[in-house]
Structure formats: structure tokens, C-alpha cells
Specification:
heterotrimer; A mainly alpha (175); B mainly alpha (397); C mainly alpha (117); A: 175 residues; mainly alpha; Four Helix Bundle (Hemerythrin (Met), subunit A); 6 helices; 0% strand; globular; C: 117 residues; Methane Monooxygenase Hydroxylase, Chain G, domain 1; 3 helices
Chain lengths: 175, 397, 117
């Protein structure tokens, strides 16, 4: 095993452990913080794959914006931070069955895939991944339409959020 | 290659030789030497941080027509060490209702988010730090962890002042991140890279001279990100007592305090790197890396001094005014400036350097002037609306 | 990848040093807790009600608007890197991209959602 594979396994265990904590902890803010550590683990995996831009964007967007949004949402909606109800409902066996089937299917499909033993190779010197991405985003024969549509999508998200939150009586109570 | 020209590489090669001589794997030796280098850099930063306490107290005293610390040692220089001993031997109280783990994690993350910023700071032409090709975004990513630490501190303290202070501060920090991200793109456009080294290497003329408005917006957004006056809602002594760090004492409070000072100094450094050429000054940086580091520290100190100057001159702004200022003025202005800069950059691509610089400065001045005129007419109509038709001359009395 | 080793080292050392400082305070400081000392500070009076209160919706709106513009800025960074090579059409594409989102900002503004009511 190379050092890179050991690092990957450690990061993967950290990410999965955090993800398990997200769904098992009873405190909602703790769940949000565990989610942050899960997302940080994912960012570390991107870094391991030499995807610098995606790794940093993962931290900027998911930890810097979405986690904050989650914590605000928790503080906004819940008076009680602790969830006292049962954590699993009576259909838990069906969930276990489906997830085992899916996992087994994936293992079966990937049993002959050679990627398990591969490690990410170093990028060739002078390889400008961000520049290539920038070119692809605005080039007419690449992704210029998705690029502009992304803007429309963001606009729709913003307008939708504002419309849902808009209260014409404006009877907002303070804090 | 002598020690004087490239001290870091000479020392690192020597140490690696020593470690491999002990029978260590070459890669492991490399990582160990890197670890020692990082440890040394951060230890030096912490020593600088201790002196920043003294600098801050001395400067604020001058702004407020006082003397500042002047009893312990020459010019009070030993004072910060006395402060540290005091912080260490103070009792560390944790509120009984606090969420213990999150409460203790918050000051550690706060300090860490500042220290990792130095991973992308180029100190000298031969000490480039981490040559990350996403350096500019790394700045924001580290800031995201800082934001998180404040929300953790505010929430975990289980105190109303802390929670309100933390939430207000986080709302301000995330809001001002938009203008900061936007103007961060201006040096990126000029240098055609997000790499901090490339941004410095491309600055034969300071970007402050090409985009003064961008430098100004970055400074304002940085002050908000730092949570210093006029944007120090997190603390807000007069209404929230101490804000998000109200329940912290001893060294945990010390971490927030030291983190804030070092953060301000670091942003002074980033302001220097992005808009004032970093370690470059009249070619002196080529003489010796020690001189280059000195130039960077002096520039960072000047940036820090400007931040202090603003802090001790301005009053605190209310949260509604602050968010309105950001979303209704600073963010549209930053977007307008970005687009104008991009447009001018394309139009003047083949122009000579002097014309390019002149065009950019004019574009900046015109953009800023239009923005201020729009803001002025908007505030005038709002004032007339509030005063209900009173003449402005009478309203002054 | 090799750059990230340095970043990882910075993260490790950046965690170790504050932990060390706080541990020093823990070792050398007195430890005499009592219930009064551990009570929540509320300007000297007994705390009234829980601190983990429900917050106003405005924070959520600002966080949402921020999220949208954060994603937008991230899209623009690769565009900004290559702008010098791409010529005028890329600039115009960027202008269209930003303008569409500024419409959203204006809508939010008009609906009064940027007011701290």
C-alpha cells in the first residue's frame, strides 16, 4: 500500500464516521457540525485527486455557505435543539434490505474494475486545469450555454426563496 | 547557492541530509523537514502576534491621546508577556450549561483558520510558501472555517448575548464575503492566475495604481470579515457586553483575541500581496530573501495600521445599516467594477502599458464617482422623505 | 497533491499550537469550579429563559442570498483566470451572467427582503 492509499483510507473512514454521526446524533446543531466535518472529508478526497479548484470550492460553498445556512435554518425553525422522538421507524428492516442490495449490486458490478488499486498520478508540470475550465465555460463549442443557464438557475433559486419567504403583512417578530 | 541567498533551501537540504543519514526514508525526511519549517513559521507568527498586542495597545493609545503601556520594560515592551502569563494562570471557567466539546473547539478552530492563511503567503522570491494554484480562493475557504468557529462559540456558550453576537457577526461576515470574492477577481484578471506567487510576479506596477477602487472595496470587506470596528457587531460592548466570546476566559479568550490581531495583520499582508506588490519593492527583494521578508512585514504592518486607524476612528454601525450598506451599495458596486475592469481589460489588451494604466484608473474613478452620486441622490431623497419636506438648511440645526 | 501536504501540515500545526496554549492554561491555572461561577452570565441577574432561542427569519434570507452569489462568484473565478486570452466575447458572456443575477438582487431588494425589518 502506498502512502496515498493509506491517507485515502483514513480520510474515507473520517468522512464515513462523520456521516454516521450526522444521522445518529440527537442534537440538531451537532448534526450540522458533523455534516461540516463530512464535507471537509470530501474536500480532502478532492485534494487527494489533484482537483484543487473543486476542493477549495467544496470548502467555500459547502462549509462557508450551506453549513451556515443549515445552522441558521435550525435556529430559525426549532425551539428545542434535541429531538426526543425515536430515530428509526418500523420500516427500518426494509431500508437495511434495500441498502444491502444496492451495495451488493455495486460490488458485483465493480468486481472486475481495475480502479481500486490505482492512485492519482501527479499532474504534468504546467497543466493549467483552472484555465482549461475557464476556457471551456465560455467557449461556444463547449459549455457556454450551461454556464449561462446556471445563472438562470441561480436566479430562479433566489426568486423562489424570496417568494416563499415573502410575507406581505411583514409581521416579523424580533429574534 | 549560499545561506544568504536561499536560507530555507540550504537549511532544508542540510536537515534532510542529516535525517536520511540516520537511515530515514527520503520522502519521510522531506515531510519531516516541511513539518519543522511550518512549525518554525507558525512559532514566529505567534511571537509576532505577541508583539501585535503591544502594537495595537500603543497605537490605540496614540489615537486616543494616551500613552499606552509604558511601565513594564522599555516602552512597555514586556507588557504583552505579562499579559500572557496572566492569561495562562487564570482560571478557565466553562459555563455549566455550555456544550462543552463545541465550546472548547471554537477558539482552537478560530486560531487555526488564521494560521492556515499563511500557507499561501509568499514570503520572498525563494520562499514561495505553498504554490497552490487556487491561492485566492483558499483565502475565502480559510475564512469559512473562521466564520464557523464564531457560530460555534456563540451557540455553544448557551448565552443570549453570545448567540446574538455570533449570529450578527456571521450574517455580516457572509454578506461581506460577496464583495470580497468579487474584487478578489480583479487581481486574478490582471495576473491571469489565482496563484499568489503569480499575482506578485505580475505586479510590475502595483494593482493599487490600476484598480484603486478594487483595493478600497477589498479593505472594507476585509475589515468586515475581521469583525473590527466599524463592523464589530460580534463584540458590541455597549449592547452585547462582549458578544460571542462573553463566556470565554483565560487562554481560550486569549486565542480569540490573539486570533483577531493576527487575522488583522494577515489581511494587511494579503492587501499588500494583492494590491501592493507583496515582497516586491524597487528590486530590493532580489538582494536578499531577508530583505524581501522585511518588505512584506513592513507592508503588512502598514495595512494593519490602516485597519487600526479605521477601527479607532469610526463608530460602530447598526446591523441593519451594515447589511443595507453591503447589499445595496458595496455588492452592486463590486459587480459593476468587476465588469468594467473586465471590459476595459479586453478593450485595452493591445494598448501600451501607460494607456492601459491610465484607462483603468479613469474607469475606476468614473465607476466610483457614479456610485457615490447614485448613493448621494438616494440618501437625499430618503432624508427628504423622513424629514417630511423640511428644507435641508433647517435640518442641520 | 504535494502542495496539499503543506496545507495539511499547516492545519495540523495550526491545531496543535492553540491546543498547546489552552492546555498550558489548563495546567497552570487554578481549577475551583462552583455552581455560581459556572452560571450563565447575564449582567449579574439570574438568566431568564433558555438561550437557545428561535431566531428571526431575516438571517435565513441573507444566508440564502449570500449562497446564490457565492456560487456565482465561484463560477466566475475560472472565467477571470482566462479572461486575458479569451477576448471580448468572453467578457460579454460574463456580463450577461452577472446581469441575470443582478436582476435577482433587484427583485429581492424590491420585495423588501433586504430590509432588516
Amino acid at each position: 500500500m502506498t502512502a496515498q492509499q493509506i491517507i485515502f483510507i483514513l480520510i474515507a473512514l473520517f468522512t464515513l464516521g462523520s456521516a454516521v454521526m450526522v444521522v445518529t446524533t440527537r442534537n440538531l446543531v451537532h448534526a450540522a457540525l458533523w455534516l461540516v466535518s463530512t464535507l471537509f472529508g470530501v474536500a480532502a478526497v478532492y485534494a487527494l485527486l489533484n482537483a484543487n479548484f473543486i476542493a477549495v470550492v467544496q470548502v467555500v460553498i459547502y462549509i462557508g455557505a450551506i453549513a451556515i445556512l443549515f445552522i441558521f435554518a435550525v435556529m430559525l425553525t426549532r425551539k428545542d435543539m434535541r429531538d426526543a422522538g425515536p430515530q428509526i421507524n418500523k420500516n427500518w428492516w426494509a431500508g437495511v434490505l434495500v441498502s444491502l442490495l444496492v451495495f451488493g449490486g455495486l460490488v458485483y458490478m465493480l468486481r472486475e474494475w481495475s480502479g481500486f488499486t490505482k492512485t492519482a498520478s501527479e499532474l504534468p508540470p504546467g497543466f493549467d486545469s483552472i484555465g482549461l475550465l475557464g476556457e471551456a465555460l465560455v467557449s461556444p463549442n463547449a459549455y457556454v450555454l450551461p454556464f449561462e443557464v446556471a445563472s438562470v438557475l441561480l436566479l430562479a433559486a433566489l426568486v423562489g426563496a424570496v417568494y416563499v419567504a415573502f410575507n406581505p403583512r411583514a409581521g416579523n417578530s424580533d429574534k | 547557492m549560499s545561506f544568504w541567498n536561499d536560507p530555507l533551501k540550504v537549511a532544508a537540504d542540510w536537515l534532510e541530509g542529516v535525517f536520511t543519514g540516520w537511515g530515514m526514508n527520503a520522502d519521510a525526511a522531506h515531510v519531516l523537514v516541511a513539518f519543522l519549517g511550518v512549525f518554525l513559521l507558525i512559532a514566529i507568527l505567534m511571537v509576532i502576534d505577541i508583539f501585535l498586542v503591544w502594537v495595537e495597545r500603543k497605537v490605540v493609545a496614540r489615537f486616543q491621546d494616551r500613552l499606552g503601556p509604558n511601565r513594564v520594560g522599555p516602552f512597555g515592551l514586556i507588557q504583552p508577556f505579562a499579559d500572557i502569563i496572566k492569561l495562562i494562570i487564570k482560571e478557565d471557567t466553562t459555563p455549566g450549561n455550555a456544550d462543552k466539546v463545541v465550546y472548547n473547539l471554537a477558539p482552537i478552530l478560530s486560531m487555526m483558520s488564521v494560521l492556515i492563511l499563511w500557507a499561501v503567503v509568499p514570503l520572498a522570491p525563494v520562499m514561495l510558501g505553498t504554490d497552490l494554484n487556487v491561492g485566492a480562493l483558499f483565502l475565502i475557504a480559510a475564512g469559512a472555517i473562521g466564520t464557523l468557529s464564531i457560530i460555534m462559540a456563540g451557540w455553544a456558550s448557551n448565552n443570549k448575548f453570545a448567540l446574538i453576537g455570533g449570529f450578527r457577526q456571521v450574517a455580516v461576515m457572509v454578506s461581506f464575503e460577496i464583495p470580497m470574492l468579487t474584487v478578489l477577481m480583479i487581481p486574478v484578471i490582471f495576473a491571469e492566475s489565482m496563484n499568489m506567487n503569480a499575482i506578485i510576479a505580475a505586479q510590475s506596477t502595483w494593482y493599487f495604481l490600476i484598480s484603486p477602487l478594487g483595493a478600497l472595496i477589498f479593505l472594507v470587506a476585509a475589515i468586515a470579515e475581521l469583525g473590527r470596528a466599524p463592523f464589530d457587531l460580534a463584540e458590541g460592548e455597549s449592547e452585547l457586553v462582549s458578544g460571542f466570546n462573553i463566556e470565554y476566559s483565560g487562554m481560550k479568550f486569549g486565542m480569540f483575541y490573539a486570533g483577531e490581531l493576527l487575522h488583522a495583520f494577515t489581511f494587511g499582508g494579503f492587501w499588500a500581496i494583492l494590491f501592493f506588490g507583496g515582497y516586491r519593492f524597487l528590486g530590493l527583494e532580489q538582494v536578499s530573501p531577508f530583505l524581501a521578508i522585511l518588505i512584506l512585514i513592513i507592508k503588512a504592518m502598514l495595512g494593519y495600521w490602516v485597519i487600526m486607524w479605521v477601527k479607532y476612528t469610526m463608530m460602530r454601525i447598526r446591523i441593519d445599516q451594515m447589511l443595507a450598506f453591503n447589499w445595496k451599495f458595496l455588492t452592486p458596486l463590486a459587480f459593476a467594477l468587476l465588469l468594467v475592469t473586465a471590459l476595459m481589460n479586453a478593450l485595452l489588451a493591445s494598448a501600451p502599458a501607460w494607456l492601459y494604466t491610465l484607462g483603468m484608473i479613469l474607469a475606476n474613478i468614473v465607476t466610483g464617482w457614479i456610485a457615490i452620486e447614485i448613493a448621494r441622490s438616494a440618501t437625499r431623497s430618503e432624508r427628504e422623505h423622513i424629514e417630511g419636506g423640511k428644507k435641508p438648511a433647517e435640518a442641520h440645526h | 497533491m504535494s502542495e496539499w501536504i503543506y496545507v495539511a501540515l499547516f492545519i495540523v500545526v495550526g491545531l496543535v499550537i492553540p491546543i498547546g496554549a489552552i492546555a498550558a492554561g489548563f495546567i497552570f491555572g487554578p481549577k475551583k469550579p462552583n455552581p455560581v461561577k459556572e452560571s450563565t452570565y447575564e449582567c449579574g441577574i439570574e438568566p431568564v429563559g433558555p438561550a437557545w432561542i428561535q431566531f428571526k427569519a431575516q438571517y435565513y434570507i441573507f444566508a440564502l442570498v449570500f449562497l446564490v452569489f457565492d456560487v456565482e462568484a465561484v463560477f466566475l473565478f475560472p472565467w477571470a483566470v482566462k479572461l486575458g486570452h479569451l477576448g471580448l466575447y468572453a467578457v460579454i458572456e460574463g456580463i450577461i451572467f452577472v446581469t441575470i443575477l443582478v436582476v435577482g438582487l433587484v427583485y429581492t431588494w424590491r420585495k423588501g427582503m433586504l430590509e432588516w425589518a
